[in-house]
Design brief:
6-stranded antiparallel sheet; alpha+beta; 2 helices; globular; binds zinc ion
Length: about 130
């Protein structure tokens, strides 16, 4: 990442948004903007604004983070193995810009059985038309 790009991001993002998306941080549970939001709309990448999740795939996980059972498209969200913090986890990143979004767990509801446990700080909610 160029210094200029980094400077631009530091100006556009809050310190928490920067920490989560660029440094793989995690916001505190129940502290984010979207964990309890159930409105109709879509969730975009906070950094590059690509649409990542649809509001109707969001479910109440009880975790305190916004949780989805699938991304908007298979291409929108990329996953990779994360071996940090002495755990084997699946990290979810934005396919377009590489921003860290959260982690994917295999204890979600059907039809996928997956739980995309995301940080509100990585997302921007776009209300559906006419809401
Ligand atoms: Zn992005």
């Amino acid at each position: 990442m160029s210094d200029r790009h980094e400077e631009d991001l530091r100006q556009r993002l809050t310190p928490l948004q920067y920490h989560v998306t660029q440094e793989g941080g995690t916001e505190r549970a129940f502290s984010g903007e979207y964990w309890d939001l159930h409105a109709d709309g879509s969730y975009h990448c906070r950094v590059c604004d690509e649409p990542l999740f649809a509001g109707d795939t969001k479910f109440e996980s009880g975790s305190g983070w916004p949780s989805f059972y699938q991304p908007l498209t298979a291409e929108a969200v990329a996953t990779k193995r994360d071996l940090s913090h002495f755990m084997v986890r699946t990290e979810a990143v934005c396919s377009s810009c590489g921003a860290h979004l959260g982690h994917v767990f295999e204890d979600g509801p059907q039809p996928t059985g997956l739980r995309y446990c995301m940080n509100s700080a990585s997302l921007r909610f776009e209300p559906a038309e006419g809401e």
